Amino acid sequence: MDNLKIAIYVIIRTCMRVFCIFPVKRNRIFFESYAGRSYSCNPKYLCEYIMAHDQGKYQLVWAFRQPEQVEAPARVKKIKKNSIRYFFYHMTSKVIVTNMTDAVYIPLRKSQRSINTWHAGGAYKKVGLSYDKIQSKVSRWQNRSVCKETSYYLSSSDTFTKYNIKEAYGYEGEVVNYGMPRNDLFFDHEQVKRTSAKVREQLGIQDATVILFAPTFRGDFGSGTESASPFPYEKVTGAFAKENRKVIILNRSHYVLADSKTPQGKNILNVNSYPDMQELLAASDILITDFSSSIWDFAFLQRPCVLYIPDIKEYQNERGTYTPIETWPGYAIYDEETLCHFLANPPYEKCKEIATTSVSKFGSYENGKASEMLYNLVEEVCK
């Protein structure tokens, strides 16, 4: 069966060569985020930096699963993923920017360059070959093909390069140590304030402590659940009510599970449809997650972060982590009582210290200039 799947992929890739009759356009850049789900993440922030600095030089093409439902700047050319136009623009763009493994059924032409910005920083839960040691023959073939056709891999830290890029995916090509464009926001304090105010206004939040609950994806693609332990919404809101303090919990699922049902109530907002996770982080006073790499991004805000992990033993046995949880930029909490106590009285200074120490130990490359450096790379490639 694996040999048959590989053969089908090879045939499709060969058929795609028909688009080689069209020349690669040096000023065309192709973007895709989360396999066409949204206008977001590192590709978005790079795209917006380009629009602010290129004086209209580049044609910016974005692929979406449902283009008509995505809000994007007027200058962006939206196309439907896996349409004829999708294949045409994919194979005639000089630069291809993604944040996941690219489509293995589309070959990369010799004159094209692909940049994988990935969608996570740090090195926390195990991914790829790190936990899935026994891969099928077709999976190994796909992984080799993707690695071979990735021109540049963006890294956020030493540990990310070591574990996520090299160990998990066996990438041996060029790694660019720029940090992530989406995190440039957090190095501009005035922009963080403006973003926070915008989000709170859109969500109708006034004079409240904002807690973002964003658990990671569990299991493999096509299956999986939210956090294995139910989140104590009522106890958390009750703890704030006892002190006559208003709290709003923003419930954010992993993008794979964004269509799943999430609780809603007077103090709980479902923000799955909000397009930009970085903006939600900027608007949040506290982040609660488990093994999600969102803790890497949030660390640069130096605000209280909670790792709510009552199922830590099960998770370590089933999947595992790259680095000890004690080195992560957040407080590990294992029960509801401790969680409520922490949220009511977070040790702010200690949280800042933990965040700063963690990103330093991980060998962070983030400095607020990732978009600029990546734009310079694009300029060089397109000359």
Strand order of the largest sheet: 3-2-1-4-5-6-7
Give the biggest beta sheet: 7 strands, parallel
Report the average pLDDT across residues.
92
Order of helices and strands: HEHEEHEEHEHEHEHEEHEHEHEHHH
Helix content: 25-40%
For this entry, give a set of tags.
383 residues; alpha/beta; Rossmann fold; 2 domains; seven-stranded parallel beta sheet; six-stranded parallel beta sheet; 13 helices; 13 strands; globular
Short description:
The chain has two domains: 2-183 and 368-382, 3-Layer(aba) Sandwich (Rossmann fold), CATH 3.40.50; 189-361, CDP-glycerol glycerophosphotransferase, C-terminal domain (Rossmann fold, 3-Layer(aba) Sandwich). Helices cover 37% and strands 15% of the residues.
